[in-house]
Predict the 3D structure of the following.
Amino acid sequence: AQSVTQPDIHITVSEGASLELRCNYSYGATPYLFWYVQSPGQGLQLLLKYFSGDTLVQGIKGFEAEFKRSQSSFNLRKPSVHWSDAAEYFCAVGDGTGGFKTIFGAGTRLFVKA
Amino acid sequence: GAGVSQSPSNKVTEKGKDVELRCDPISGHTALYWYRQSLGQGLEFLIYFQGNSAPDKSGLPSDRFSAERTGGSVSTLTIQRTQQEDSAVYLCASSLGNGETQYFGPGTRLLVL
């Protein structure tokens, strides 16, 4: 069964600083990987996804993530954080072998300080 | 176009009562998911429907939970004999199919007193 670990419950970064949110997954085959963002009072929104191909994936709002099979990781990055990026970020892994059960990590809450 | 809608947006019920939560997916989306998000927790997968295939119910926490999807569109999640630990936000999502982007509804916030 697949699983997802987000080691950081919360992270605080200064506005303009770079950001990296960690995600490790466990899955027997090539996973489908996702990052979602949940802003206060907003629904979940997909930032980016990886299915195959180029291991560096570009998403919306200037985010990118890199799939590293050897490390079972799919870390999310942004070169310069904006105050509006403060939100909860969820990494998820999907079972692409038939059904499409999606397992989410516990989330990382991002705080941005001025 | 319209996104995923859920109703009610908030539900307060007494312990032991049954509740029904509704999800209207995006038109044309064949896949529909239910998740539960407890306070301060991530999303817990509950159930997944894809077309006419048998649903994946592996995430339902107990036999008090059930869901159906009528006509391949609207879905209802039913919780029987609610318990206080059922209090959470219940999220529905839909997608075009396997592997496609899931679009989430605003959720139903359930409070069991």
Chain A touches chain B at residues 6, 32, 43-46, 49, 51, 90, 92, 94, 96, 99-107 (CB under 8 Å). The CA atoms of residues 13 and 112 of chain A lie 5 Å apart. The radius of gyration of chain A is 14 Å.
